Amino acid sequence: MTSIDKNPVAPRVIVREAAAPRPRWQVWLIRPEVVTLLLLVIAAIVATRLSPFFADLGFILESSTYYIEFAIVALVLTIVIISGEIDLSPAAQMALSACLFGTAFKAGAPIPVAMGVSLLSGLVMGAFNGFFVTVLRLPSIIVTIGTLILYRGLAQVLAGDKSISGFPGWFVGIDYRMVGIVPVPVLVFIAASILLGLFLGITIYGRQIYQIGTSEIAAIHAGIRVRRIKMGLFIASGLTSSIAGLMVASRLGSVRYDLATGGELTMVLIVMLGGTYIFGGRGSILGTFLAAWLLVIIATGMTVANIAINAQLTIMGLLLIVSIIATNAIYARSQR
C-alpha cells in the first residue's frame, strides 16, 4: 500500500518589509522644477563670473526681451504637451500672423484693424491644426510639421523677400516701454505665467488636461470632453502665437516672412528644460517659467562670450536632448 503523508509541508510565505517612505527633502529634490531652479542658480553664478553685467538685474531684464515672445508661447505649449499632444508650428504662425498684420496695414487698414486681422488669423490657424488632430485623428507632430511649412510658405507669398515697415511710432518699440525697470513684454510673460499656472493648478479643466495626458482612454470613460479640450488648446496656441508675432513686429519695427525662424527649437527647449514630460501627463508652468530665465542667461552668456551662432544652435540642440533624457530619468526615479 502507498502511504499518504497526512502532514504535508506548508508552502513558505515570504513577507517583504515595506520600503520606508523617502524624506520630504528627497521627494522635493527630484522634482524637475527644483532641478531647473538649481541649474538657473548655477548658470547665474557662472554668468556673473563671465561678465559683471549679469549681476545687474536691469541687464538681464533687457536681454530677456529677445526671447520673451518665445517664452510666452512656450507657456501654452507646455499645456499642449501635458495633454499628450505637441505643436511645432507656433513660430511659423507668428510669422504668418505678423505678415498678415503688415499686409493689412500696407493696404491702408488702421493699426487696430490690422491687429484684429492678425489675431483672427491666429485663431484660424490654431483651429486648422486642431481639426486635423481632434477630428481626423492624425498625429499632432505630423500635422504641425506640415502646417509649419504651410504657414511659413504663405508668409513668404504675402511678404516676399522684403520687409514691411512704416508702422506708427506708438506701435513700435514695445521692448523699450518700461514699468520701473521691467519691460512691458516681461510683465506680460509674468502675468501669463501666473494666470496659466492658476488655470492648470486649481481649475477642473487643468486637472482634466493632466488626466487626458496620462490616459486619454480613461479620460474619455470618465466623461471628459477630450476633443473639445484639445481643440481649445490648439486654438489658444494659435492665438498666443499671433500675439507674440505682433510683439515681435513692435520690437523690430518691421515684419518679414522669416520672422521667428528657428523658434520651434527654442520653445520646445524651454518646455523640456522646465521638466514637462514629452509624452504628456506631467509638467508645470512654474518649470517653464524658470526654464525661460535659464535660457535667457545661457543664450546671453554665449553671446557675451562671442560664441558663433552655429555653435550656439548646436549647444541648444544638445541641451534639448539632455533635458528630455533627464526628465525621463527623473520621472522614472520618482515612479520607483
Automatic annotation (TrEMBL):
Membrane topology per record: Multi-pass membrane protein
Matches recorded under Pfam families: BPD_transp_2 (PF02653)
Spans through the membrane: 34-54, 66-84, 115-134, 141-159, 179-205, 233-253, 259-279, 286-309, 315-332
Keywords, alphabetical: Cell inner membrane, Cell membrane, Membrane, Transmembrane, Transmembrane helix, Transport
InterPro entries: ABC_transp_permease
Domain of life: Bacteria
Compartments, record wording: Cell membrane
Quaternary organization: The complex is composed of two ATP-binding proteins (LsrA), two transmembrane proteins (LsrC and LsrD) and a solute-binding protein (LsrB).
Function: Part of the ABC transporter complex LsrABCD involved in autoinducer 2 (AI-2) import. Probably responsible for the translocation of the substrate across the membrane.
Protein name as catalogued: Autoinducer 2 import system permease protein LsrD
